[in-house]
What we know:
GO terms for molecular function: DNA binding; DNA-binding transcription factor activity. It contains 7 helices and 12 strands. With 226 residues, the protein is an alpha+beta fold. Helix 6 packs across helix 7.
Amino acid sequence: MSPIWFFEDVNLFKILCPHKFKAYKANHEFDHYKKSDYIYFEDDQASKVYLIEKGKVKLGYYGEDGEEVVKAILTKGELFGETAILGESVRQEFAQSIDNATSICPIGVDTMYNLMRDNQTFSFKIYKFIGFRFKKLERRLKLLMFKDCKTRLIEFLGDMCAEYGYDCKETEQTIIKHPYTQKDIASLIGTSRPTLNILLKELKEEQYIDFNRKEIRLRKKLPNVS
């Protein structure tokens, strides 16, 4: 696993959810969404941050040509809308449920400040998490702008390997058990599902990977695309 920030391997929901704090428990409720429901739109007021109890959420925006650009797909335990903590007044992105049973824990900005004020070490780690998220997004957007589809896929596989991969001694392969569908991956690398399927089959024919719906196995080191 790569040395990434504190929260990458931590379920933030278990740490931050207000129902775990006596002072906030009584007034705390979860929001529930079905597939394609929006949690918020671009230009909505930014007054909350959100934790995912279960399900998946897509973050993105629409370009000048009306094309959707997917910034991230987040799963159980992850935080989004965090720029409200930094003083963002309106949303610069949309957040949409892409699961039929998504449960969200909303946290008002004032409540978040109170939770952070009570624990300076925790507060520092929250800001490090936000910094990491920005760097990760900037890198991915550069890939979308300047790299071809196959390069974007290889870079994404490398990222997934760092986040979800583990070595299997029996097969001498790296196994990536990830939360994404092929549609998710296609959206994140800015291509179509048919093109993604072609690229995955090419990498399989080149003996770099094996894959199924739930996991990807790296048979050898991915080609250098830097």
